[in-house]
Structure formats: C-alpha cells, structure tokens
C-alpha cells in the first residue's frame, strides 16, 4: 500500500487528465464524420480519436508521474509493479456511430491492486472516482450499489466482444435471461460498471474484458459496497479476465449463473 499523499497525488492527476482527455474526445465526437475508421478485427474499430486521446493521457501521466508504468488499449505496454491501465475511449463503436455513451477510464494499479479509479463520461459530464479503502463518489455524491436482492427484479448490464466465441456468448445471455433478469448492453463496460457503483444497474457481467476496460470500474463497485470477481486472478492484469460486479445480495446466484469464481 502507498502512503495517503501518494494516492491523493495520483487521484488529482487522474481527475485532471480524464477531464482534459474527455474534452478532446468530445470535440472529436462532434467531428466524427472526418475520422478514418480502421478495423482492428471483426466488429473492432479504432480511429485517430482513440489514438490522439490516448497519446494525450500518456503524455500527461508520464509528465506528472514519471515513476509509473503505462498499459493502454491503443499503444500497449505491460503491467509492472505500479502502472496505469488506460482506455482513452471505452465505447469506440458507440462513439463512431454517434451513440452518446462512451468513457475515459484510468486505473492506477500497485502491487496487483487497483488503488485509484476514475471513469469520466463526457456525454453526461459525470466523473466517477474512487480510492481503495476510501469509498467512491460521482461529482461529490457518495456512490452506493443498489439494494436489489432478487434476480427477477434485477437490471443487469452485459457486454460481448469478438474475443469470446459466439456460442459461449449465447449461452451466457440465455442463462441470464432464464435467471430471470432484464438485460442492458450499453456498449461501454467502464460506464456500465460505474452504473453498478451508483445503483443505476444492479449488476454487470462480461465473459472477457481487458484490464483497461475493467479495472477502474471494478474498484468503483467495490468502494460503493458491491462485490466483484477477482479480475487480477491468473494472468488477468496482462490478458484480461471475466468480470462480474453486483449488489452483494445477488452475488451467489449471479456467480452460479455466469460461473465466475472469485
Ligand atoms: C469495448 C466496450 C464494450 C465491451 C467490449 C470492449 P472499446 O471497449 O467496453 O462495451 O463489451 O468488450 O472491448 O473497444 O469500445 O474500448
Ligand atoms: Ca475498452
């Protein structure tokens, strides 16, 4: 664990960088027709906006905190003892198609534990922040997960990607619908996790997320009193993992349905 002043310093930098990066993303969103869209894989896109926003974040973090490492969705890196996991635009497909739901996600990880998490959602100008052991808030209001205790009352966020076989995705959707729960696929995992932290959603599940998608939002959920699966388990910090986050009373049933251990 780092001393408090080291966490305060990192939180302040992360908030300022997330707002600056979000403002740049918002300007690109308004001019998204000018962007050249490239394929990273099937249904997986990237544009100059993602790269430019990540380059800005990288430059600002390295300027303020040169001792910290960096792992970004677009420019890569590796998890070290202390590093930032950065998603410049989480929800790239939403962004490029003009759906106003995307986020900048920054997580500071030290000795395999996420200590600081910031998720900034430019379209609504909401900034979610959390520090391990100190709680989480959105724009000055403390975050608290929902009190939902029954699956049939639950609204559950779900994500999917080409990283998971279609048959396995279909099985998870089927199991959740039979739960029975109602589902929302928002297209930005970081935003969906922030929504679990503030009680808008009762849970979120995705069979595979990358560290930059997940780490900040998962910290918010834990600091808001929720339960999360052990994302760092195994090679999670380098290769990603399944992610389940939920109101505590839903933990056992959702973990059984989604078969996530943690
Ligand atoms: C994606 C989004 C999406 C999730 C995918 C992620 P990106 O991130 O978070 O909601 O379902 O697994 O890859 O590509 O928009 O940064
Ligand atoms: Ca992402």
Summarize the structure.
By secondary structure, the protein is α+β, with helices and mostly antiparallel strands. The chain has helices at residues 4-30, 48-64, 92-97, 166-178, 189-197, 211-223, 236-239, 251-258, and strands at 38-41, 44-46, 69-72, 76-77, 82-90, 103-110, 113-121, 126-131, 135-138, 141-142, 155-159, 182-184, 203-209, 227-228, 241-246. It binds D-MYO-inositol-1-phosphate (IPD) and calcium ion.
Q: Average pLDDT, to the nearest integer?
A: 95
**Which word captures the global form?**
globular
Enumerate the distinct ligands.
D-MYO-inositol-1-phosphate, calcium ion
Strand content: 25-35%
Along the chain, the helix and strand elements come as HEEHEEEHEEEEEEHEHEHEHEH
Task: Give the total of beta strands.
Answer: 15
The number of helical runs is 8
Q: What is the rounded distance between the termini?
A: 22 Å
- Unreliable stretches covering 5 or more consecutive residues: none
Please give the share of residues in helix.
25-40%
